[in-house]
Amino acid sequence: MRAGTGKPIVGKHEEQASPKHVAIIMDGNGRWAQARGKPRLFGHHAGAQRVREIVKACPELGVRYLTIFAFSTENWKRTQAEVSGLMKLFRRYMMDEARALISSGVRIRFIGDRIKLDETLVALMDELELLTCDNDVVHLTVALNYGGRDEVARATKRLCREVKAGRIDPESVDGETLARFLDTYVLPDPDLVIRTSGEARISNFLLWQSAYSEYVFVDTLWPDFTREELEQVLATFSTRERRFGTVPG
């Protein structure tokens, strides 16, 4: 779907239920800021506000799982000032939002490699996961220092250790076995992946999990992506027939 057209990027099929798990590549913060003559971090702050609004809308829209791409393994290549500013923003967001997330029934998880992250930030992540572990209204997963290829590589290393230790028979290894070692092993695969800002790439996001996901690309920059546009995207999803490799009945 392209913003302003209301048309799906594939043909119309029989209607189905709304997606339970939506994943979002939140793109366009920097361009949004630059268009207003502001530094890129201004856009990231606006994007954080948009996350708050979209999370709040999820229960009413029937979305139980929301996964957002906050910082990729490739984002370290950005300027030191932007990376440092983003890390400060993540810390501030976690501290400011903790009480609201707990009271609104949001369970938060973080996926990605934590090795390169600051110890203070990791401690906040651990604490927020613990404080919200009993919540079940919305499951919010934040991909932080995350890359799909990196995740599969790390999962493979863990699997290899289990095989080497004799706890797993190598002949029994299949897709389901490897999936148990992914960061998202406790989550269902996403039904729908949305990318904002007009770019039509998946950018190394949930490569394994999105094998049969539906994709929608919208032109809207992330800070402008409203609840109403999310509703439009969900309506587009409902027109699609998910076949999972089979043929129509």
Largest sheet: 6 strands, parallel
Give the helix level as a range of percent. Answer: 25-40%
Q: Report how far the terminal alpha carbons are from each other.
A: 26 Å
The secondary-structure class comes to alpha/beta
Shape: globular
Describe this entry's structure for a reader.
The structure is a single chain. By secondary structure, the chain is α/β, with parallel strands linked by helices. The chain has seven helices and six strands. The protein has helices at residues 29-34, 40-61, 80-103, 119-131, 148-164, 175-179, 227-237; strands at 21-25, 65-72, 106-111, 138-146, 192-195, 214-217. A six-stranded parallel β-sheet has the order 3-4-2-1-5-6, sandwiched between helices. It starts with 20 loop residues before the first strand and ends in a 12-residue tail after the last helix. Mean pLDDT is 91; it is low at 1-14.
Outline the secondary-structure elements.
Elements: E1 21-25, H1 29-34, H2 40-61, E2 65-72, H3 80-103, E3 106-111, H4 119-131, E4 138-146, H5 148-164, H6 175-179, E5 192-195, E6 214-217, H7 227-237
Parallel strand pairs: 1-2, 1-5, 2-4, 3-4, 5-6
Tell me briefly what this model is.
By secondary structure, the protein is α/β, with parallel strands linked by helices. 39% of the residues lie in helices and 14% in strands.
